[in-house]
Design brief:
Shape: globular
Radius of gyration: 17 Å
Strand order of the largest sheet: 3-2-1-4-5-7-6
Distance between the termini: 29 Å
CATH class: Alpha Beta
Strand content: 15-25%
CATH superfamily: Vaccinia Virus protein VP39
Structural class: alpha/beta
Number of domains: 1
Helix content: 25-40%
Largest sheet: 7 strands, mixed
CATH topology: Rossmann fold
CATH architecture: 3-Layer(aba) Sandwich
Number of helices: 9
Order of helices and strands: HHHHEHEHEEHHEHEE
């Protein structure tokens, strides 16, 4: 069973089926530490700002916030897309999403839809201009989740991802710290040396930057254009500055 998007500030029931996305959203850390999540990750707020800075979006654009958690990326996204834009936040954790809903209500945002569902099972209405993946390793390793997201992006859409990764093997003290930091929130460390692996098959111009001495990464690029080409500079311009939006 799948779920549909809801009115701003509300959430819909998550389906009972289990998947890799569901496991990530339903982990013990997300269930029991949701209210401390913002405090725990506040040190990395500048990473979130870097992530959103890589999205060439503007007023009126629609952004998929994948694994949105408590909505920490939403304030910066709102500054970019304005009240005429739209944010679709998707997360499998009811506890995290309830905090995102409270954030939406507190800020009186009328342009946010929240979907409570594993990413690979979420019902996403319409197509979006960009997708954001912030600290969602398990989701990034799920081909079915990636497929569902990219099926709802327009040709030439912007894609940006950020998160932790294994640093070089000889940096063993840093590797131990990275493992301790991420272990509560990651089900499987497969491909943690290259978390962006599945994006390379969908984003032909994917560019990856190392962060934090190799303990993190920032990846960004675009989906192919309608004719299958890598987007040009014009195609990466926010839609509000290009031709009129399609209906």
């Amino acid at each position: 069973m799948t779920t549909a998007s809801t009115r701003p500030g509300t959430t819909s029931p998550a389906p009972p089926a289990r998947s890799i996305s569901d496991l990530a959203g339903g982990s013990q850390a997300y269930r029991t530490h949701a209210r401390r999540y913002d405090h725990r990750t506040r040190t990395f707020q500048h990473w979130r700002e870097q992530l959103i800075a890589q999205l060439p979006v503007g007023p009126g654009d629609t952004v998929l916030d994948i694994g949105c958690g408590t909505g920490l990326c939403m304030p910066a996204l709102q500054q970019r897309i304005g009240p005429t834009g739209r944010i679709v936040g998707i997360d499998a954790s009811h506890e995290m999403l309830s905090l995102a809903a409270q954030r939406v209500t507190d800020n009186d945002w009328q342009n946010v839809d929240l979907i409570a569902a594993p990413i690979d099972e979420a019902v996403i209405n319409g197509t979006a201009d960009a997708a954001l993946f912030c600290a969602v390793h398990d989701i990034m390793q799920s081909p079915s989740a990636i497929d569902n997201v990219f099926d709802h992006l327009r040709p030439g859409a912007a894609v940006a991802a950020i998160g932790g990764k294994w640093p070089a093997p000889w940096l063993w003290p840093l590797r131990a710290w990275v493992a301790h930091l991420h272990a509560p929130f990651i089900t499987d460390f497969t491909h943690f040396d290259q978390p962006w692996k599945h994006l390379t098959q969908r984003v032909p111009d994917l560019t990856v930057h190392q962060l934090g001495a190799g303990g993190g990464y920032l990846a960004h690029g675009h989906t192919p254009t309608a004719d299958g080409r890598t987007p040009t500079a014009d195609a990466t311009t926010p839609t509000s500055r290009r031709s009129p939006r399609r209906p």
